[in-house]
Every structure is written in structure tokens, then in C-alpha cells.
């Protein structure tokens, strides 16, 4: 499958706001993701960060003036967007949003936005009172009406010390939003329920048994499903990862809690993707207090946990179900056996030693047509291919 985002050619416009310092990191991340980035700055942006920084990070000269004679025909405002897949303004000040809303073209960046023939994505960044001001809200609504995508703003502590809505999205979140914009909407409006991460089964107040699982694959699958236009609910065991901004997020600890959360969501789920590494056993009668150590052998009684995926597959009106398997050997044989035993249309399998905790993995998809090994890649690339495969099977079974 081609990568829809890496080769994108973006014109990044930077306007005058303190969040401009984050644009340097955004450029770095975009370039790292394989995008070609041309930076254009307003005069006010140059008061916050120098063009030299952006030039070094983007590897291209930065433009700031309508009257720049480095463009042969003197028409930078026309030339600049003709070979671009999108214009992204980050940060977009209240003043610049007002200009965009009303078609004001009095500098290079505002003029090329008016003259562009590609999509425009805008990441607002301003003090919360400025964002909440009815004038700014009117202008933001006009942008939406004009088909311009607003990325954020986010909420949080602001440079001025106040707290509220108006912060620019963090660079990593902006990159995600830009990538999501370009992804084909393969599952628009579908409700996708995903489990991720490990479960933790308490032994006492401070100890427990768990599985090795970072949650990275499940969170990547959630992100890929969001990019495909789905509504995503992510039921997650304890991980160190930030929840995907656009997903409904339910945090759980034990397998029983995960089962309960899944059952509550099932009635309006179209697709269930079970990525979680669920502990196979829980401890009978865990101690409420910390068990004091002594010289004796401690015996724990373990009882099998419910199989969450099996419960869903064998329940009434099951959604389209996808399982995951991490094996340590005989991947093809064990994965196919598991797929048949669990009665699944699709199972994604990898070698545990290759995948756990790592950003990269090798994934093979097993369905009725056989095994489909995916090229080794990072987990978001694999998750996108998995979602594309799910969309194809899901639409075929629904026909
Ligand atoms: O642990 P096992 O290899 O059987 O896991 C296969 C699939 O079943 C995975 O998708 C996993 O999330 C799911 N599973 C589950 N509940 C369990 C055990 C596994 O949902 N108790």
C-alpha cells in the first residue's frame, strides 16, 4: 500500500504568536516524516523566531516578502502553492484568521492563501479571551464554511499565565492531524472498539501479575482508525502513552474491568479490534493489604480470566472481530490455529520478541484467503495497512 502522507509537499505559514517557537519542532517532525516543507513567515513571526532556524530545519530558503526578487517572475504569491498539496498555517494568530476570513491580502502569506489552489489547514494559537471573543468565533466559523480545516486549538496553560482554550496543538499532534487529513476515509462514521495494552491482576495492594505490553500497537491502530474516518473507543490497560486526542478513552486495570468496559460499548460497535495483551489468569482472593514477606513459600491461587474476544465473537449480533496474536515461534501455524479456534475472519500476528515495546514490527495478516505478510515498518504504518485490510473485508462481508 502506498504511504499517503510521507511524500506530501506542504507550505507551512508561520504568523506572529509565541507558539511560533513550536513551529521549528513541527518542521523537524514533518521533514522526518518525509514531507517536503516550504516555510513562509509574516513579519510578526520573525519577531518570535528567525527565518534562519526554519531554513536550517526545512533545508529550503524561507520567504517573508511579497517583493522578494528570488522568484524569477516576481509572483511568489502565485508560484508558491502551485506544487503544494496543502498550505498549513501554524501558529495562526487571531489577526491572521481574521484576514483569511475576509480575504485580506496585504503580505506574502495572506496573499498566497488567497491565490492558493490547494487545501488550507489552520492551527489557531492565541490567548483564551481572544479565541472566545465573538469576532474570532465568527471568523473561525467563516473559515469552516469556506472548507478550511481548523486543527485545534487545545486547552491548557498559556504563555500569558491564563488557562483555557487557545493553545496551539503540540507539534506531534499537529503532524498527526496533518497526516490524518490526507488519509483515505475508508471507514467513515463506523464505530470501532479497540482494546490495547496489558491488564494487571492484583496480588495485593502494591503487587500484581501482568503481561509485557507497551500499548503502542493498539494506540497506533486507534490512530489509523481515526484517520480512516471512524469513531473510535479505546479501552486501554495501564500504559505510558497519551490517549489519541480524538478517541473516546476508557482506562481499565484488570481483565474483568476490560471485559465490563467492552460489554458496555458493544451494542453500537461495528468493528471490534482486540489488541490487548490480556492476562490469562487472575489472583483469587487478592490481599487488600501489602503481604509481608517472610521465609515461607508463598502460594498464589490463579483462576482463568474470561476471554474477552471470545465473549464478543460468541455473543448475540457480534461486530466484525479482529484478533491479535503474539507468538514466540511457529508464527504461521499457531496464528492460523488461533484464528480458527477463535472463529475470527481476521487475525494479525507477530513474533513477541520482535514486537513488544518496539516502535517497529513485522505483522502478518491471516484471513480466509491465506497469509498476508506486511513489509516491516513502524507501528503506525502497519496499523494503517491493517485498517485498510479490515475495511476491504468489512465492506465485502456487508455486501
Ligand atoms: O492470548 P491469546 O493469544 O489467546 O490472544 C489472542 C487474542 O485474544 C488477542 O486478540 C487478545 O486481545 C484476545 N484475548 C482476549 N481475552 C483474553 C485473552 C486473549 O480478548 N483473556
Portion of residues in helices? 25-40%
Compute the number of helices.
15
N-to-C CA distance: 23 Å
Q: Give every kind of bound small molecule, once each.
A: cytidine-5'-monophosphate
| CATH-level-2 architecture of the largest domain | 3-Layer(aba) Sandwich
Strand ordering within the main sheet = 12-11-8-13-16-17-19-20
Number of domains: 2
The count of strands amounts to 21
What overall form do the CA principal axes indicate? elongated
CATH-assigned homologous superfamily of the largest domain: CoaB-like
The secondary structure category is: alpha/beta
Mean pLDDT: 93
What do we call the CATH topology of the largest domain?
A: Rossmann fold
**β-strand amount:** 15-25%
How would you describe this protein?
By secondary structure, this protein is α/β, with parallel strands linked by helices. The protein folds into 2 domains: 180 residues, Rossmann fold, CATH 3.40.50; 208 residues, 3-Layer(aba) Sandwich (Rossmann fold). Helices cover 36% and strands 23% of the residues. The protein contains 15 helices and 21 strands. The protein has an 8-stranded mixed β-sheet, sandwiched between helices. Helix 1 packs parallel to helix 3 and helix 4 packs across helix 6. The mean pLDDT is 93. Bound molecules: cytidine-5'-monophosphate.
Amino acid at each position: 500500500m502506498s504511504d499517503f502522507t510521507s511524500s506530501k509537499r506542504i507550505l507551512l505559514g508561520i504568523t506572529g504568536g509565541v507558539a511560533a517557537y513550536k513551529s521549528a519542532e513541527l518542521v523537524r517532525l514533518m521533514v522526518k516524516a518525509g514531507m517536503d516543507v516550504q516555510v513562509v513567515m509574516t513579519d510578526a513571526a520573525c519577531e518570535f523566531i528567525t527565518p534562519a532556524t526554519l531554513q536550517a530545519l526545512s533545508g529550503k530558503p524561507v520567504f517573508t516578502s511579497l517583493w522578494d526578487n528570488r522568484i524569477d517572475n516576481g509572483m511568489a504569491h502565485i508560484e508558491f502553492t502551485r506544487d503544494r498539496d496543502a498550505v498549513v498555517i501554524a501558529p495562526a494568530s487571531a489577526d491572521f484568521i481574521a484576514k483569511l476570513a475576509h480575504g485580506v491580502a496585504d503580505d506574502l502569506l495572506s496573499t498566497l492563501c488567497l491565490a492558493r489552489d490547494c487545501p488550507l489547514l489552520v492551527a489557531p494559537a492565541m490567548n483564551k479571551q481572544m479565541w472566545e471573543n465573538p469576532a474570532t468565533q465568527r471568523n473561525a466559523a467563516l473559515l469552516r464554511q469556506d472548507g478550511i480545516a481548523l486543527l485545534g486549538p487545545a486547552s491548557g496553560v498559556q504563555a500569558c499565565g491564563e488557562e483555557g482554550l487557545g493553545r496551539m496543538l503540540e507539534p506531534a499532534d499537529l503532524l498527526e492531524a496533518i497526516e490524518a487529513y490526507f488519509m483515505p476515509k475508508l471507514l467513515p462514521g463506523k464505530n470501532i472498539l479497540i482494546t490495547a495494552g496489558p491488564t494487571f491482576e492484583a496480588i495485593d495492594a502494591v503487587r500484581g501479575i501482568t503481561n509485557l505490553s507497551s500499548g503502542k500497537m493498539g494506540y497506533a491502530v486507534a490512530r489509523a482508525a481515526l484517520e480512516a474516518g471512524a469513531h473510535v473507543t479505546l479501552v486501554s490497560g495501564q500504559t505510558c502513552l497519551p490517549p489519541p486526542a480524538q478517541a473516546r478513552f476508557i482506562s481499565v486495570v484488570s481483565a474483568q474491568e476490560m471485559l465490563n468496559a467492552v460489554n458496555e460499548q458493544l451494542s453500537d460497535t461495528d468493528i471490534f479490534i482486540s489488541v490487548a495483551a490480556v492476562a490469562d489468569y487472575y489472583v483469587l482472593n487478592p490481599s487488600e493489604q501489602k503481604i509481608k514477606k517472610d521465609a515461607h513459600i508463598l502460594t498464589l491461587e490463579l483462576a482463568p480470566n474470561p476471554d474477552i474476544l471470545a465473549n464478543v465473537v460468541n455473543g448475540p449480533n457480534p461486530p466484525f472481530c479482529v484478533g491479535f496474536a503474539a507468538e514466540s515461534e511457529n508464527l504461521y501455524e499457531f496464528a492460523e490455529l488461533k484464528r480458527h479456534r477463535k472463529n475470527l475472519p481476521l487475525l494479525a500476528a507477530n513474533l513477541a520478541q520482535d514486537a513488544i515495546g518496539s516502535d517497529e514490527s513485522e505483522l502478518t495478516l491471516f484471513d480466509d484467503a491465506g497469509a498476508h505478510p506486511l513489509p516491516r515498518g513502524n507501528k503506525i504504518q502497519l496499523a494503517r495497512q491493517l485498517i485498510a485490510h479490515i475495511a476491504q473485508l468489512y465492506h465485502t462481508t456487508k455486501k
